[in-house]
Amino acid sequence: MQYERQVVAMSVMGRIHSFVSCGTVDGPGIRFVVFMQGCPFKCMFCHNPDTWDYNSGTLYSVDEVIGKIKKYVPYLKASGGGVTVTGGEPLMQMDFLIELFKELKKMDVHTAIDTNGYIGSKAKNLAELMELTDLVMMSIKHINPDAHMKLTGCSNSNTLEFANYLNEIGKPLWIRYVVIPGFTDDFLSLFKLRGFINGLKNVENVEILPFHKHGEKKWEELKLPYNLDKAAVPNEFEVAKVKNLLCIDPEEKK
């Protein structure tokens, strides 16, 4: 049996962009963060467009990734942290995540996935992966379908379906939302998004992230047209307005 496990761990390969050993913004506590390669979304505000290409990055086995994580485990556990898999879109490499999380659970390490929900709720082996996942962090780029398509090049129907699926199975969920003045902060859309979030019983946290242009140089290097070069970075008041609208209201969840 041990031999069979080693064969599986060595044969399932993941295409990975990079690692961060002591992340502090990708879930609770200190996190070892694995950036998977490949993403179907082409978000106008993405600060890692170099993670989009499915054929880029480096192939790693599960055992190789576990080897990188092991020495940090005491620090992760002491801080109440763990391992977060992000991207790109990590759920596009679900078989790899399942085998990786199996090994992390044997080590009693907290597991989190940062996703855009593109796969929806009917993907093969999704239930198995969710059994091994302690927390899902999901970005809702926009509640309005047309605005979402303009921002990402993809529909938001699977994203919302995925959120409802997580609610049905009671999986802890953090919602992430990026504030871009003139793009994601109109009152009617925010009010609609608030209603959607308050309809989910499993949301533990809503993170409001101000838009920034830190990734603009990467767009230039990849020769991609950066259409938000004239977009404003939100000020404190604009961020606070969105926070107030999207805060979790326990009374509305009853």
Protein architecture, described:
By secondary structure, the chain is of the alpha/beta class. 37% of the residues lie in helices and 20% in strands. It contains 10 helices and 8 strands. It has an 8-stranded mixed β-sheet. α2 (62-70) crosses α4 (94-106). The protein is globular. Mean pLDDT is 92; it is low at 1-9.
Topology:
Elements lengths: L1 H10 L1 E11 L7 E6 L21 E4 H9 L2 H6 L3 E5 L7 H13 L3 E6 L10 H6 L3 E5 L5 H8 L4 H13 L3 E7 L7 H12 L4 E8 L5 H6 L14 H11 L8
Helix pairs in contact: 2-4
Examine the secondary-structure arrangement and name the CATH architecture.
Alpha-Beta Barrel
CATH superfamily: Aldolase class I
Shape annotation:
globular
**Beta-strand content:** 15-25%
Number of domains: 1
Low-pLDDT stretches are 1-9
Number of strands: 8
Spatial arrangement of strands, main beta sheet: 3-1-2-4-5-6-7-8
Task: Calculate the terminal CA-CA distance, rounded to whole Å.
Answer: 48 Å
What structural class is derived from the secondary structure elements?
Answer: alpha/beta
CATH topology: TIM Barrel
Given this structure, which CATH class is correct? Alpha Beta
Roughly how much helix do the residues carry, as a percent range?
25-40%
Q: What sequence of helices (H) and strands (E) makes up the elements?
A: HEEEHHEHEHEHHEHEHH
The main sheet comes to: 8 strands, mixed
Which oligomeric form is depicted? single chain
> How many individual helices?
10
Mean pLDDT: 92
What are the key terms here?
254 residues; alpha/beta; TIM Barrel; eight-stranded mixed β-sheet; 8 strands; 37% helix; disordered N terminus
